[in-house]
Specification:
The protein is of the alpha+beta class. Helix content is 30%, strand content 32%. The chain contains 3 helices and 6 strands, in the order E-H-E-E-E-H-E-E-H. The protein has a 6-stranded mixed sheet, with helices on both faces. The chain is globular, with a radius of gyration of 13 Å. The model has no long low-confidence stretch (mean pLDDT 77).
Length: 114
């Protein structure tokens, strides 16, 4: 597993044009953006205050870092600055980010597959 980048909140704010291109998700919200010519999605969960605090957030970052499947968004890194807990993914224009994340979590936990 390669080391994922730690993004600064100010850089993500600029890349998403002040978080203006909002995409609603069942578990939170995501914003489209562009960083150095790369299209990205910045995701924030509804519960930005993680149960388990920073340790819980970093655990999710590690889990999402090891998941790499065909046609799924790759985690580029995260932002853990102040009270901001954001995931930064490559932008994937096909499929729903909700479905992608649910599929990853179900597969990772060994849950129901269908």
């Amino acid at each position: 597993m390669g080391r994922k980048r730690d993004f600064a909140f100010a850089g993500l704010k600029a890349a998403t044009k002040d978080f203006s291109q909002k995409m609603a998700l069942d578990f939170g919200v995501a914003y489209k953006g562009e960083l150095n010519g790369l299209k990205i999605t910045v995701e924030q969960h509804k519960n930005a205050c993680y149960q388990g605090g920073e340790k819980g957030f970093q655990s999710d970052v590690r889990m999402l870092s090891v998941v790499r499947r065909e046609n799924l968004a790759m985690l580029l890194g995260s932002c853990s600055e102040g009270n901001h807990r954001l995931f930064v993914f490559e932008y994937v224009c096909t499929g729903s980010l909700d479905n992608i994340c649910l599929e990853i979590l179900v597969d990772f936990s060994g849950g129901i597959k269908g």
